[in-house]
C-alpha cells in the first residue's frame, strides 16, 4: 500500500510541476522580460525528486533512485538558497 500511495503523490507532484510551475515560469519570464526561476519550480522539483526517490526505494528499484537522489540534493540546495540566502543578505546589510 505504501509504494502505491507514494506513487500517487509522485504523479500529483509531477502533474503540478507540469501544469502549475512551468506555465507560471513562462508567464513570469514574459511579464518581467527576463529569465528567472520561480519558487514554485524549486518547491515542486524538490517534492517530485524526493517522492520519486522514496518510491524507487519502496519498490526496490534502486537504479532509478540515483538521479532522483541527485535531484533531491540539488533542489534542496536551491530551496536553501530561496529560503535562507535572502535573510543572510539582509542581516549582512544591517551589519550584524
Keyphrases for this structure?
single chain; 96 residues; mainly alpha; 4 helices; 86% helix
What does this structure look like?
It is a single chain. This protein has 96 residues and is an all-alpha fold. 86% of the residues lie in helices and 0% in strands. The protein is built from 4 helices and no strands. It has helices at 2-32, 39-58, 62-83, 85-94. It is globular. The chain starts with a helix and ends with a helix.
Short summary:
The protein is mainly alpha-helical and 96 residues long. 86% of the residues lie in helices and 0% in strands.
Distance between the termini: 51 Å
Q: Please tally the β strands and state the result.
A: 0
The SS-based structural class is mainly alpha
How many domains is the backbone divided into? 1
Shape: globular
Number of helices: 4
- Percent of residues in helices: over 70%
Mean pLDDT, nearest integer? 83
Order of H and E elements: HHHH
Model regions low in confidence, pLDDT < 50 over at least 5 residues: none
Biggest sheet architecture: none
Radius of gyration: 16 Å
Q: Which strand-content bin applies to the residues? A: under 5%
Amino acid at each position: 500500500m505504501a509504494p502505491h500511495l507514494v506513487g500517487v503523490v509522485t504523479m500529483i507532484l509531477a502533474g503540478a510541476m507540469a501544469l502549475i510551475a512551468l506555465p507560471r515560469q513562462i508567464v513570469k519570464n514574459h511579464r518581467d522580460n527576463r529569465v528567472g526561476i520561480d519558487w514554485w519550480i524549486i518547491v515542486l522539483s524538490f517534492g517530485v525528486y524526493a517522492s520519486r526517490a522514496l518510491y524507487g526505494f519502496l519498490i526496490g528499484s534502486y537504479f532509478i533512485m540515483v538521479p532522483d537522489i541527485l535531484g533531491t540534493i540539488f533542489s534542496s540546495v536551491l530551496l536553501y538558497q530561496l529560503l535562507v540566502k535572502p535573510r543572510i543578505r539582509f542581516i549582512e546589510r544591517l551589519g550584524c
